[in-house]
Amino acid sequence: MPTIAPPETSSMGISKIALATSLVAALSFLSGCQQNRLNIAVIPRTTATLLWEPMHMGVAEEARDRGMHVHWNAPANEGDVEKQVKAFSSAIADGYSGIVFAPDETSASRSIVQQAMSRQIPVVIVDDELGPPAGRFLSYVSSDEATGANLAAQRIATVLHGRGSIAVIGISPRLESGLSREEYFERALARLAPQVQIRSRHFGDTMVTHQQQIAMELLNEPQPVDAIVALTATATRGAYYARLASGGHSPAPTTLIIGFDQDALLPIRSGAIDSVIAQNTRAIGQIALINIENQIHGRSVQAVTLVPPLLMTRDTIDTPELRRLREFTRFPWSEQ
Description:
18% strand, disordered N terminus
């Protein structure tokens, strides 16, 4: 019986088969990687500001380097507590591996965070002293409020030469961190500039027009204060708008504005705002993302991490440390 030889297979045919097999294997591998990729929800108070976009960049940098995916979701306007809590609830329901959260209101946020922890979803709280103790599924990363208060008090002591009067606006009763900021500032001022008097204190909210009205009244007093210390970005902007609205014709054309939480650069460059205590939110975002990854894998993290803020003035605004907070405009977002 004749022997039947197998059909010849060309080297080109073998190459095509090998290539197809490799492509199938690669696609299967990528699909598995996508399925195993950690998805992290990040919920700040709002977005598209000089305070929060550096944090966006910080978490995105770490996520890219660690093969994680970040879903950035925030209310369009700060103060929309209901929408922020709803976003957090959705992150729980959608099965995110972890949540980075900057509460808009302390009391309204505690129960929803505890709900996530009860489901063993790791949470990192940013920029607030929420209350529940840190543990396996909870850690805190915030700006160092004591250091920021010292920077502001030292700036007051320097620009007022250790004497004068000030008003404090923007005291935030919605956040424990806001109340702590005011307390730290008063302590620092008493220590560093004991002859500077706090003439008045004013609570703040998220309405720039309201903060502007408070500042206008201060500027129009018969004997205006020497400086306004604005404890939030909203209050700082309100004080700046009051300065613009007065057109330099108020009784206080030389009243200085010292603010907290970066929001606008031009008023600092022009000197309309003397200085701002800027949060290093890029570093805060990086540390928060690292904490989340470690908490997901059961590794211990520091319970509370405090990140030193930076003094932003006309002289320091372009230092490398402060320029790094503005690099989000050049970040390759398409790689996320």
